[in-house]
Amino acid sequence: MRQTIRLVVSTVVTMVVGAVAFLPAAKAASAAPQVRVRQGVLVGAYDAQHEAVFQGIPYAAPPVGKLRWKPPQPPAHWSGVREATTAPHSCMQMDWGWNHWDATHDSESCLYLNVATPALKPKHPLPVIFWIHGGANYNGSGHYGPQTLTRHGVVLVSINYRLGIFGFLALPALTAESPHHSSGNYGLLDQMAALRWVRANIAQFGGDPGNITIAGQSSGAIDVGMLLTSPLSRGLFQRAIDESGGPIAPDPVLPDRTQAEALGEAFAASTGVRPGPHQLAELRAIPAQKLLELANRFTAPDHEGVPTRRGPDVNVDGWVLTEQPAAALRNSSHRVPLLIGNNIQEFSFSRTSVIQPGAPPDPPNKVRAAIRKDFGQEGEAAVAAYGLAHSDSPPVDPRLGSAGTQLMTDVYFRCPARIAGQWLGRRGIPVWEYQFERPLPGTGQPSTRHSGELPYVFGWAQTPGKGIMGGTYGATDAALSQTMQGYWTNFARTGNPNGKGLPEWPRYAGTQASGHASGQARGLELMHFTAEGKAEAQPMRMRKACVLYRKHMEQGVGGKKEMKRIEGYPIVSSVTR
User: Fold this and answer.
1) DSSP-assigned letter for residue 151
2) Which tens digits make up the pLDDT trace of 539-555?
3) DSSP assignment letter at 136
4) How many whole angstroms separate alpha carbon 418 and alpha carbon 130?
5) pLDDT, averaged across the chain
6) Average pLDDT in the 285-313 region?
7) What pLDDT was estimated at residue 576?
8) Spatial distance between the Cα atoms of 503 and 509, rounded to a whole number of angstroms
9) 387-436 pLDDT per residue, tens
């Protein structure tokens, strides 16, 4: 299952808000906002708070025809005034219901970004939050809104980037035509191209090109982790936020280019296109919708759109990524402050993000098998840590859930976040860690879920009543949302989430002073956004499972030996991605 938890539910939000990206007001109170960027003049719209919103700005040329599976190229210039008032096409993706809007408004020509700003001409340039959406790198888009982050004095940018087969296919023929002897990772290159566009143009929107925070959730957070370790992204951003993902989640070892090429050759063969001098021309001639359907058949997704076979994804290609991210994190990743965390329960063992009361118990033998595969040489100790050494039904933890739910959250979210914090802290890099614990109000769910923090980060929980993701929000939710937005935007502004009126959030790993008024060094401390809606920093001990997982990773996880080859291409040997 390691293939799939990048995942689905991060973009369930898109189903609700995709069509209203940065929701502009129907009528502006004054003349529409205009900016001149390097490609020409843009006209946007004012939203209900009179903040300027620009949608569908091209940051690269359409990646179609001969540009399919090429690094992004500069966008064309235009004459006159270009309207930027309509949500752009999403990138190509299948329709799984929760992403219906994106899937029914998709196109291969999709490299656009959106900008929302509280002031086009502020007294001082504003910090920029650059948002990378989730969705397994197979689904989703940069459509978010209406949002209230910008009311805290930041510019918000959200982007589309190539997904799935369009964004990550590697082939020997693609490598051969590349001057960098590389293929795959086109989606990551898109993200970097968007960052370069932002650095060149964001001052026109009131933003500070020298103060950019890259942020993402789920697979978007994983991509943030990749940008933290890529030599090509050095200098493009100053801080990073990872929500439920990161540089060593969900796979501590990525395929290398050779493995990725073998997978690509297997995909090409499944389409009927053989290797040879015409292979790339034939693959590029396949219509986008047909190519998407062929890729969908190749990855064999389940009813939620979760691939059950490994498909094209991020690889250590020698150019975009030059070493395994886990190794880079310990030794050479970019030295930028990081805010990182997880939700207390992210996924059940059955791969659902909505953890219902009274769900069937986890099958103990399958949980044990998954533990042994995920923890390698520490597998038996980990089985004992989850209470499964001598019992088929260990007690369900009222906060952390069943053994299977704990495993899913530990291995793919909680432990990678804690381990990353320790590794970076040892290098003197500032890290702040959190755990989000509030269940979606009014749903009857016993715990939070994957993506459960998004209504609070974007401010949707500030609107009372039934709202996005099915929550019924009230005053407690609005207050928690304001608190979290304060931390997130303080971090974007200064690299430290602390600020006036907020409970102190100590730095993680305790190697330096906290930077807050107390100035005192702390041990391992975690900011809990509690089930009751409070922000409380508490000392913590590393979970036994996380200690074992860190030991497993530090002893070295062999990428090639972890991959099993079935029917000519690798599949994942463990639980889910």
Assistant:
1) G
2) 988 999 999 999 998 88
3) T
4) 24
5) 88
6) 87
7) 31
8) 19
9) 999 999 999 999 999 999 999 999 999 999 999 999 999 999 999 999 99
Structural contact between residues 119 and 81, judged by C-beta atoms closer than 8 angstroms: no
218 is catalytic: yes
Kindly report, residue by residue over 241-296, the tens digit of the pLDDT: 999 999 897 788 899 999 999 999 999 999 999 999 999 999 999 999 999 999 99
User: Tell me: the pLDDT tens digits for 445-488?
Assistant: 888 999 999 999 999 999 999 988 889 999 999 999 999 999 99
pTM assigned to the model: 0.91
State which amino acid sits at residue 391.
S
Give me the helix-helix angle, 257-270 and 288-299, nearest 10°: 110
d(CA 159, CA 389): 46
Nearest to 434 by CA among 244, 577, 251: 244
The shares of helix, strand and coil residues in the chain, as percent rounded to the nearest 5, are 35, 15, 50
Scan for tokens 């009014």, then name that residue.
442
Choice among 261, 346, 453, 525 that is catalytic: 346
The first and second tokens of residue 388, run together, are 């499964």
- pLDDT for 423: 93
141 counts as catalytic: no
Length of the chain: 577
**Is-contact 267 293, C-beta < 8 A?**
no
Catalytic position from the list 90, 141, 183, 218: 218
Q: Secondary structure of 392-455 in the HEC alphabet?
A: CCCCCECCCECHHHHHHHHHHHHHHHHHHHHHHHHCCCCEEEEEECCCCCCCCCCCCCCCCCHH
Distance of CA 419 to the CA centre of its chain: 18
DSSP states along 220-285: HHHHHHHHHH-GGGTTS-SEEEEES-BTTBS-SS--BHHHHHHHHHHHHHHTTPPSSTTHHHHHHH
* Whole-angstrom distance, CA of residue 18 vs CA of residue 23: 10
Buried b (16+ CB within 10 A) or exposed e, 543-564: bebbbbbbbbbeeebebeebbe
Active site residue 353: no
Q: Which of 89, 152, 334, 450 is catalytic?
A: 450
